[in-house]
Design a protein that fits this description.
37% strand, 4-stranded mixed β-sheet
Length: 119
C-alpha cells in the first residue's frame, strides 16, 4: 500500500475512496483532525489524518526564525511497510516539547481487503 501527503485531506479522498492508498496525511486546517477510518467505494479501508499547525504558517513564505504560536509535528510509525501509528508532538513558543498520546492506526495487514493486493 502507499501513503499520500497532501495540503488538504479532501484532495486525498478520491484515492482513499478507490482504495489506492492506506493513509492520507494532510495539513491546511491548522488543527489536528483524526485519524478517521475511511471505507472506500470498493470496501477497502484507509485512514485520513490532518496534522496541527506548524506554528506560524499565516503567510505563504517563511517569516523570521522563531515560532509565533505553538506548533505540532506528527511522527508516523511503520511496521512491515504499513503505517501502524501516529505520534503527535507539540512544540511551544518557549521551546517546551509536549509529547501527546500515541495513536494506534487500524491493523489492515490481516484484512482480506488488503492482503495480497500488491499495492
Amino acid at each position: 500500500m502507499s501513503r499520500l501527503l497532501v495540503h488538504d485531506a479532501d484532495l486525498g479522498r478520491p484515492a482513499l475512496d478507490r482504495g489506492c492508498v492506506d493513509l492520507v496525511l494532510a495539513g491546511h486546517l491548522h488543527l489536528q483532525v483524526g485519524p478517521d477510518e475511511v471505507i472506500g467505494d470498493n470496501g477497502r479501508t484507509g485512514t485520513t489524518y490532518t496534522n496541527g499547525t506548524t506554528g506560524g504558517a499565516a503567510y505563504a513564505f517563511a517569516l523570521g526564525s522563531k515560532l509565533r504560536r505553538d506548533a505540532e509535528v506528527t511522527l508516523v510509525t511503520f511496521r512491515d511497510g504499513r503505517p501502524t501509528g501516529l505520534q503527535p508532538v507539540g512544540i511551544r513558543t518557549n521551546g517546551e516539547i509536549v509529547v501527546k498520546d500515541f495513536i494506534d492506526l487500524p491493523d489492515v495487514s490481516t484484512r482480506p481487503d488488503i492482503v495480497g493486493n500488491g499495492n
